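---------- Forwarded message ----------

FYI, see the Spermidine/putrescine ABC transporter substrate-binding protein record below. Original note from H. follows.
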Amino acid sequence: MNFTKDTGKYIVLFIMAVIVGTFATGCGKSSTSGEKASKDNGDGELNLFIWSEYMPDRVIKQFEKETGIKVNYNVYSSNEEMLAKISAGAAGYDISVASDYMIEIMRKQDLLEPINKDNIPNMNNLDEQFLNPTFDPGNEHSVPYMWGNVVIAVNKDAVKKNIKSYEDLWDSEFKNSLVVLDDQRILIGIGNKLQGESMNSTDTKVIQKSKDLLIDLLPNIKAYDSDSPKTMLVNGEAKAGIVWGAEAYLASVENPAVETVLPEEGTNIWMDNFVVPKGAPNQRNAEAFIDFILQPEVSAEISKDFPYANPNLSAHEFIDEDILNDPAVYSPKEFLDKSEFFTDIEDAILEYDRVWSEIKQ
């Protein structure tokens, strides 16, 4: 399979189930508007609030060099942490990254500024499948950045069992040897899926059963790590893990004994997007930064360090074939068909919060 040319073919049926593309896009020429942004906004700063391990320093330095805009880099470890800080009135952030379901929540809470797409001509480089999503019709408040999945990574030198499923990780062979994502929606969602239910279930009985399943898994969990779970896989501290697909890929590059397993139940598929928090003091600079990132060569440079699936179609010609062909990053259609995007579960999130606290107490 050649995902370089056929990425759309392998993901279109799944993506179109949740995303209805109406934008006309193409491999347009790159453009930059950072210099003008810096002049329009007097202080020449950009306050970036983003996941750790998600933006190379050299890309930020290149943006600063080309525009004269100083980037202040701040990180969070989960969508929920980001939401808590912004909704609590943490002032001064100009740009952040939020996943699909979180944008839906933030829009409802009026926490986002509308984005002026006239300032982001490089949106033309994005694959139309990732535009006009159901969680933000017309991309009024968001611009796609990366997308990906959650997979199992296994050190074949340390594991005897043939791993095919999330359920296999409950085996006593993994006692005190798993690294898992520190993410309540993902882990509780896996519990839901093991019951044959949706990862977005709001049924109290389903959620409670997922809590019981995860408590049973606790003896096997050595660490929770959403930032760099690959580290414990590479150095041998963990035999296996529930990790981001890109982290599984990077772990396998550093330690060939680490292999990716696409769990037979399916998994979570996510899409991260740039957003501008309400009241951002330097919104013009934020839009200039997004436009800079969407240049094909810049976007591809980010994929070298953090090889998540890239919605920037024009960047694919600059991305290593090994990444484009790796199922941990660009998964086959049959796996995507069994997988789910998260949605806003509204008041049921309180039950998820309660259950997560009980699991980790």
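H. also flagged this: Residues 152 and 261 are 5 Å apart (CA to CA).
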